Amino acid sequence: MSAPQRITVLGATGSIGLSTLDVIARHPERYQVFALSGFSRLAELQALCLLHRPDYAVVPDTSAAHELQSSLRGAGLATEVLVGEEGLCAVAAAAEVDCVMAAIVGAAGLKPTLAAVRAGKKVLLANKEALVMSGALFMQAVRESGATLLPIDSEHNAIFQCLPGDYARGLQPVGVRRILLTASGGPFRETPLAELERVTPEQACAHPNWSMGRKISVDSASMMNKGLELIEACWLFDARPEQVEVVIHRQSVIHSLVDYVDGSVLAQLGNPDMRTPIAHALAWPERIDSGVAPLDLFAVGRLDFERPDAQRFPCLRLAREAAQAGGSAPAMLNALNEVAVEAFLQRRIRFSDIARMIEAVLNAQSVQAVEALDAVFEVDRRARALAAEWLARR
Ligand code: NAD
Ligand code: MG
Fold it and tell me: Does residue 59 have its Cβ closer than 6 Å to ligand 1?
């Protein structure tokens, strides 16, 4: 048996981070935690450190670092506490690390995830926003460094499993016609349209099938999540936006499908539990137990499919348009969405204002080429400033 793989979990205190640690803890002979990061839930981070005894922990500021450092020392741990983005990039790229779970939410995850990619690590990508913001540069960095990029998003992990092993050459050579990206439709799939003006953050975060962080839960309710995933799929699998079709499948049992030119359609099925794609990517190309119950098709009974309603889910159209426009458009869309979702969670705007704000600001901007990471962050900053202006005018 070879030595255990050393893993850094960026965003350890979140929903994906905790599911990752759950899978890791089932296989102590295979995996060892090298570093954990947290941002706001620092008591939870401390508890995770006591349990997993990492070499490093990363927190957002020095006062949090002092506090965590002294409590871990008091408990007899040798864990070293690092600070901020620099600390995140260090534990993502450290020579001792074999594998990095990129599970920070939003644009904040881009630099540490890229640091892992540039260091040639095996990168388990949950942080879809990183790829949406800087897809071309990100994929170029993967090619240059020889990093192994494995998708954690359940749909992309499903597609990955349904593609031949040499998918990295692009979809065309392997005879793929389309990618069918499944979506649950979220909590508002059947809510009367007029009521969408009045829905609350609690309702938006009560997803029928998946338990997730608040930002992605709101994205699922607006279907911006599926829009971001469409862009993510284009980069991961070298597909054109027209090759990706979104299918509402409310049971969330089929996690996505690949349609081949000979008429074959391959799907990956399973219970909606993120530990399956996490375990798949951790062990790839082997298979390990994830703790997820076997799929009971008799209990599922039926699988339904429907077309998304364009009027109900304008964010899906906005994301598709941004994917087609390319350049600065996806990064702009992503940043506007992050600000809008936060404003909705703080009850400053209504649910329907999320799409309204994104469309108004996006349409007033021209699309620019983004050839370097600085340009991506410049677009991100500009979008956030424009979003703040829009919110202030309300
Ligand atoms: P979450 O909100 O539960 O956790 C987010 C993590 O990021 C936490 O550990 C938090 O401390 C950290 N974080 C937040 N802001 C930060 C900042 N500014 N700097 C550093 N760290 C910060 O979110 P989640 O549901 O676990 O999602 C994480 C990522 O995975 C997202 O990009 C999401 O789109 C993606 N994803 C999640 C799921 C899911 O089922 N939860 C499924 C597919 C993809
Ligand atoms: Mg997903």
Answer: no
